[in-house]
C-alpha cells in the first residue's frame, strides 16, 4: 500500500472508528525546544558525497529551470538562515534583489563555521558551498530541526550560479570567499576585516546558461514565500528589498509576534471573509523531539483553506500531519455533537467535508528526522506525527468547544447546513441518474460531438453564445473537435453550495459532456476530451464568462486544471485586409505591423472584432480552431502559490465588494488590451 492510499484510509476512518486512541505522553500547549546547547563548529559538518551532477540535472534538485526553480534558489539560502532562527541564534534575515537580479541574503546567526574540515582538508565554508550533501544536519548536534535536511541547498545554489560570494562574521573577524562558473573557488577563504557581529551573507547571480527561460526575479513571488516564513516563525523579522531600480526601490519587513494566529487572521482578511468567531483557535503540543502547532478559524465561506508545513517547509501535497488533523477534527465534531445532543440519535455522522466547510487552518509541525518525498519536499511521510496531531486536535478542540459553547453552536450550525446541502446534492444526483441525465448515453442536446472515440485525441470547445456556436460547428474538424454552446447567465459557484450546482441548466451540460462527475464523485479517468477549450469573446463579457467557468473548474473539477486539460482560446482582435490579402492581428502591435506592411492605414481595411459571432465558420477555423495556426493558453496551477490562487478566486468572485475593489486598484496597471 502506498502513502496516498494509507493517508486516504486514515482520513476516512474518522467516520468509522468508535474510539480515537490518545497518546497520554504528549505535552499539550508546549512548543518544541529547538535551541541547541552544543557548539556549532567544524567538527559538526559531515561530508557524504561530492557535487558533480547538479549542473547536468538541476531539475532533480530545484524542481525545474524555469521561474519556479529560479526562485527556489533564494528559498534554499533563506531556509538555512531560518534553521539558525529555529536553533535560537538568528532574529533578522535581510533579502535584497540587487541590480542585475543578484540576490543577497544576510542573517545575524552564528555564521557558517570557518574552521578546517578534517576529512576534506579545506575550510568548512568551502565544504558547505561546494560539496553535495555536506552540512550540519546529518546527525550532528548543530541543529535539532531543519528544513534543509538533504544538505544540498547552499552547494546547489553555488553550482547553478554564475558567481557566488559568501561573507562570514565570526569570532571577531570577517571572512570572504568567492566562487565562479558553477561553484569553482576563485580563492581560498580569507580574513578581510574585523567585526563584533556574527552571521552569514551570501550573494549570488543565477547562471543564465542554466536558467534560460528567465533570470529575472519576481518581487511578489518572493514576498509571498518570505511573508509565509515570517508567520511560521513568531518574532523572526524578514526584510525583502528590491533595489534594481534606484528611483523606485521597494522594501517590506515581515514580523509577526502572533505567529500562526496572525497567519490565519491574514488569510481571512485577505479573502474578505467574515469569521464566525473573532479570535482564531490556537493550540500546540510537544512529544519528545516532535512538536505540532495549529491555528484555525471558521468563516462564512463555503470553501476550506488548509496550509501545512513541516520544519517551515510548505507541504503542498499534504501528508501525515494533515491526515491526523482531518481524522481528529471529524471525530471531535461527531463526539461533541452526540454528547451535547446537537446530533440526534437518528442523524447521520458529519463527514470530513461538512466539518471543514469555511475552515481556514494552518498546521505546522517540527521534528528532527523529517521524511519528505523528493528534494522539493512536497509531502510529509513521518507516520508518528499523525498521532501527535490527532491527539492534540482532539483533546484541545473538545476542551475549547466545552469552554466556548456559543462559538461551538455557530460552528456546528454551519457544519449542519453543509451536511444538509450535501444530502440535498446527493438526492439531486440520484434524481438525475434516474432520469438518465448523468449517463454517458444521454449527452446534452446542444452538444455537437466528434467522431473520434480516443479521448487523448479529442477537444471540447465551450463556446459563448448560440451564434458563435453555430459558426464553430460549421467550421470545426468534426473528427476530433466537439462544440458545446453556452447561453444566458451562468451560476457563480463561489457563492453557491454543491446542491445548487447539481441540476443547474448552464453547468450540468458541461459536466455531462465531460463525463467525469463533480465534487467528491469526480473521476478524471472518465474524461471524454483531452483538451477543454474555453472560447469566449475578447471583451468584458467574455472575460466574465471565462472567469465563471474557471471558478467552476477550480472549485469542483480541479484536477482538470492541475493535469493541464483546460485551455483558453485566443480569438483575433483585428482583421487587416487589402484586396485579397488578409492578416489577423491578436494585439494592437500586430495590427500596426500589418497596416505598415499594406502601406499605412489609408490603404487597407481594418475590422475590430467585438465578438466571435462576427466571424463566419471559415474565419473562426483559420484564426481560432486550426491546430496549425491557433493560439491556445493552457491554464495551470503553481502548487507553491495555490493558496494565493484560492485568495484571488474568493476576492474576485465572492460576496465582499471592498477586497475586490482593492484588488482591481492594485492590479489595474497590468491590464492590456482594455475593452472600453
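-> sequence recovered:
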Amino acid at each position: 500500500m502506498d502513502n496516498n492510499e494509507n493517508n486516504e484510509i486514515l482520513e476516512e476512518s474518522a467516520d468509522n472508528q468508535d474510539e480515537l486512541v490518545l497518546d497520554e505522553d504528549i505535552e499539550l500547549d508546549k512548543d518544541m525546544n529547538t535551541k541547541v546547547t552544543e557548539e556549532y563548529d567544524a567538527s559538526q559538518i559531515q561530508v557524504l558525497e561530492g557535487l558533480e551532477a547538479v549542473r547536468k540535472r538541476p531539475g532533480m534538485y530545484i524542481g525545474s529551470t524555469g521561474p519556479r526553480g529560479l526562485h527556489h534558489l533564494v528559498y534554499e539560502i533563506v531556509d538555512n538562515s531560518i534553521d539558525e532562527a529555529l536553533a535560537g541564534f538568528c532574529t533578522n534575515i535581510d533579502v535584497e534583489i540587487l541590480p542585475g537580479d543578484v540576490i543577497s541574503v544576510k542573517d545575524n546567526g552564528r555564521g557558517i563555521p570557518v574552521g578546517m574540515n578534517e576529512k576534506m582538508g579545506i575550510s568548512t565554508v568551502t565544504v558547505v558551498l561546494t560539496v553535495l550533501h555536506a552540512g550540519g544536519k546529518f546527525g550532528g548536534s548543530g541543529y535539532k530541526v531543519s528544513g534543509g535536511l538533504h544538505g544540498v541547498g547552499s552547494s546547489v545554489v553555488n553550482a547553478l550560479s554564475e558567481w557566488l560570494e559568501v561573507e562570514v562574521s565570526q569570532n571577531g573577524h570577517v571572512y570572504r570567499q568567492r566562487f565562479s562558473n558553477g561553484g569553482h573557488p576563485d580563492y581560498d577563504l580569507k580574513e578581510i576585516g574585523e567585526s563584533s557581529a556574527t552571521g552569514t551573507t551570501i550573494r549570488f547571480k543565477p547562471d543564465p546558461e542554466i536558467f534560460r527561460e528567465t533570470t529575472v526575479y519576481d518581487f511578489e513571488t518572493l514576498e509571498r514565500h518570505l511573508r509565509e516564513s515570517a508567520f511560521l516563525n513568531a518574532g523572526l523579522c524578514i526584510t525583502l528589498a528590491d533595489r534594481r531600480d534606484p528611483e523606485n526601490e521597494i522594501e517590506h519587513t515581515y514580523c509577526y509576534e502572533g505567529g500562526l494566529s496572525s497567519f490565519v487572521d491574514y488569510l481571512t482578511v485577505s479573502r474578505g471573509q467574515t469569521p464566525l468567531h473573532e479570535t482564531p483557535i490556537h493550540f500546540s503540543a510537544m512529544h519528545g523531539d516532535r512538536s505540532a502547532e495549529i491555528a484555525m478559524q471558521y468563516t462564512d465561506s463555503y470553501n476550506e483553506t488548509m496550509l501545512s508545513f513541516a520544519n517551515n517547509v510548505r507541504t503542498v501535497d499534504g501528508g501525515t500531519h494533515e491526515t491526523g488533523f482531518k481524522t481528529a477534527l471529524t471525530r471531535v465534531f461527531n463526539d461533541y455533537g452526540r454528547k451535547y445532543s446537537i446530533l440526534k440519535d437518528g442523524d447521520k455522522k458529519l463527514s470530513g467535508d461538512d466539518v471543514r466547510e469555511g475552515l481556514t487552518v494552518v498546521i505546522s509541525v517540527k521534528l528532527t528526522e523529517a521524511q519528505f518525498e523528493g528534494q522539493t519536499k512536497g509531502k510529509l511521510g513521518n507516520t508518528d506525527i499523525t498521532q501527535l496531531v490527532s491527539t492534540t486536535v482532539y483533546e484541545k478542540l473538545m476542551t475549547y468547544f466545552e469552554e466556548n459553547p456559543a462559538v461551538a453552536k455557530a460552528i456546528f450550525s454551519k457544519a449542519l447546513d453543509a451536511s444538509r446541502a450535501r444530502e440535498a446534492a446527493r438526492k439531486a444526483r440520484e434524481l438525475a441518474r434516474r432520469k438518465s441525465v448523468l449517463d454517458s448515453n444521454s449527452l446534452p442536446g446542444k452538444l455537437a460531438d466528434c467522431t473520434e472515440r480516443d479521448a487523448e485525441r479529442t477537444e471540447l470547445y465551450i463556446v459563448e453564445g448560440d451564434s458563435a456556436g453555430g459558426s464553430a460547428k460549421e467550421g470545426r474538424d468534426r473528427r476530433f473537435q466537439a462544440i458545446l454552446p453556452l447561453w444566458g447567465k451562468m451560476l457563480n459557484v463561489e457563492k453557491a453550495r454543491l446542491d445548487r450546482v447539481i441540476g443547474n441548466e448552464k453547468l450540468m451540460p458541461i459536466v455531462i459532456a465531460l463525463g467525469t462527475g463533480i465534487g467528491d464523485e469526480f473521476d478524471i479517468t472518465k474524461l471524454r476530451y483531452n483538451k477543454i477549450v474555453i472560447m469566449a469573446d475578447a471583451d468584458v463579457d467574455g472575460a466574465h464568462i471565462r472567469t465563471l467557468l474557471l471558478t467552476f473548474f477550480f472549485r469542483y473539477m480541479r484536477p482538470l486544471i492541475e493535469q493541464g486539460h483546460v485551455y483558453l482560446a485566443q480569438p483575433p482582435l483585428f482583421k487587416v485586409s487589402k484586396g485579397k490579402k488578409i492578416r489577423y492581428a491578436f494585439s494592437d502591435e500586430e495590427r500596426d505591423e500589418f497596416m505598415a506592411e499594406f502601406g499605412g492605414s489609408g490603404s487597407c481595411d481594418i475590422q475590430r472584432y467585438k465578438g466571435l459571432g462576427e466571424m463566419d465558420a471559415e474565419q473562426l477555423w483559420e484564426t481560432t480552431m486550426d491546430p496549425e495556426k491557433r493560439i491556445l493558453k493552457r491554464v495551470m496551477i503553481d502548487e507553491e502559490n495555490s493558496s494565493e490562487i484560492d485568495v484571488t478566486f474568493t476576492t474576485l468572485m465572492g460576496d465582499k465588494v471592498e477586497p475586490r475593489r482593492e484588488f482591481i486598484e492594485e492590479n489595474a496597471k497590468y491590464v492590456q488590451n482594455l475593452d472600453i
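The chain has four domains: 3-21+259-406, 42-254, 440-571+613-637, 574-608.
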